[in-house]
């Protein structure tokens, strides 16, 4: 399923400034732009550090802070409204959200996905980074909509990851094409070498 650099540049996603209540899009971006944003300490580092400093038992406070302070993207395409029916053009990307892995296991699991030959052959990982909370993983995976639709790809990925990774679950909301993904600071964010060869 591997695409060349020009095809990868065509993946456009709808980008929004915080808070989550903002439904007026700021821009349309690609994988490379997201990698730049996520790895830039001047953008999201303070918010990320503050969120991770809130005690885990204060879940309501953590959710409220994340919703207020983090920019977000609709990874699966460009939209004229922030809902599935507002889709203009699918990006060929699905964001997978794996929660509550454990902070010490996130990097290890990310490396497993990066070097998963079956994953790269059938789905191709474009971007992988630690979630804002620090104990989850976000995976931006390329899907081929000529083979099947967004929801069918979600079921295929859900099944593969469940089977191959010992019962790890993907957040079921990822099946929604307008699923929002918050953008944290992660200096170790993985990006497909075709997108960013250096």
UniProtKB/TrEMBL annotation:
Organism name: Segatella sinensis
Ranges of residues in domain BT4734-like N-terminal: 68-190
Pfam families: BT4734-like_N (PF08800)
Name of this chain's protein: BT4734/BF3469 family protein
